[in-house]
Amino acid sequence: MKIKTIVIAPYPGLSELTLSLQNELLEFEIVVEHGDLSRVLPLIGRIHTEGYDVIISRGGTAKLLQKHSYLPVVEIPISGFDILRILTLVKGYSAKCEMIGFPNIIEGFMSVSSLMEVDISYTVIHQEQEVGAALADAKARGIQVVIGDSITVKMAAENGLQGVLITSGKESLMEAFSRAGQLYKSAEKLKIKNEMYEAMLGKLQGGYAVADQGGKLEFANPLFKHLLKLPETADTLYTMYPGLREMFRDAGRGQTLTGRHPFMSLSRVCICGRNCCLPRMNAGCIC
User: Fold this and answer.
1) Per residue in 89-105, is it b (16+ CB within 10 Å) or e — as a string?
2) Cα–Cα distance for residue pair 172/74, rounded to 1 Å
3) Closest CA to 5 of 27, 30, 22
4) What would be an example GO MF term here (predicted)?
5) What confidence score (pLDDT) does residue 175 get?
6) Which of 106, 128, 239, 278 is the most exposed place for a label (fewest CB within 10 A)?
7) Which runs of consecutive H residues, i.e. helices, occur in 203-251?
8) Which residues are CB-neighbours of 275 under 8 A, at least 6 positions away?
9) pLDDT digits (tens, 9 = 90+) for 2-61
């Protein structure tokens, strides 16, 4: 089965490069979507419903996806070749240049520029909303050429500045796909183990569940749900059984009600409010 991968490309050239490499990436089913920081959030809902295994993007777009998506996000690195290409391009510029970008991009460029003896000032930003102020400040200081990602270059042009786009080469994109493949394979192994453990717990005679301190069920075998009369779609215990909140008051994530095992164990539970017991916990009624 191929690894279903979506590449969010902040600029058209990255889309074209990705599509040109499909014959070299046969283990992947690749979909390319153009989207920068300003467009990526509306895409997330659709990405989550279309069954992708992994997302690949770069720069600030990748960082934003990592914050808002539960899918694994692989960031396309800025390689030494990428940096050399840009620095070679701007080295002969007589105009004052400045780089504006996220920390992960700035760090690599500053290291290589010092080795090449290319003096370029820089401004570090942490979110898209800071780009406008950074550009205004650069322009006020006499900067004429701005080096940055797609959103920075676009806004630089709107402010009357020349923009130089940091692009990713083939080697950077291939490295990202290699990481995506490794990540997917590791996740699949973990998924198989989890399914095996769930199957084992599902066959045990007692009722077992894993819940966090908020009462959210991470796992519950069928007998546990039957004993507590929980619907199949139940994802929390406290709504139906608020008494459990006190039992979990000092428990850590996944702590058992007995405090000895990473799951709750119930042999029988009273839900009628009378003559009830939790034999293994000696905790009384939870109704």
Assistant:
1) ebeeeeeebbbbbbeeb
2) 12
3) 30
4) phosphorelay response regulator activity
5) 95
6) 239
7) 222-227, 243-247
8) none
9) 999 999 998 899 999 999 999 999 999 999 998 877 788 888 889 999 999 999 998 778
Alpha-carbon distance 265 to 36, whole Å?
49
Strand arrangement of the beta sheet that strand 121-124 belongs to: 121-124, 97-101, 145-148, 162-165
Token pair recorded at residue 171: 């080697």
Which CATH fold topology does 80-165 show?
Rossmann fold (3.40.50)
- Nearest Cα neighbor of 217 from 280, 187, 207 is 207
Residue ranges per structural domain of the chain: 3-77+170-192, 80-165, 204-287
User: Distance (Å, rounded) from C-alpha 29 to C-alpha 52?
Assistant: 9
Determine contact, residues 82/176, Cβ cutoff 8 Å: no
Q: Which residues contact 283 (CB under 8 A, 6 or more apart)?
A: 247, 257
The tens digit of pLDDT for each residue in 200-220 reads 777 777 777 777 767 787 778
Question: Could you write out the DSSP letters of every residue in 256-270?
Answer: -SSSSSSSEEES---
Say how far apart CA 113 and CA 106 lie, in whole Å: 10
Short-list 173, 172, 130, CA closest to 152: 130
Q: Which CATH architecture best describes the domain 3-77+170-192? A: 3-Layer(aba) Sandwich (3.40)
Model confidence pLDDT, tens digit, residues 229-270: 877 777 777 777 777 776 666 554 444 444 333 344 444 444
Strands 73-76 and 97-101: unpaired
Q: Could you check whether 3-77+170-192 and 80-165 share the same CATH topology?
A: yes
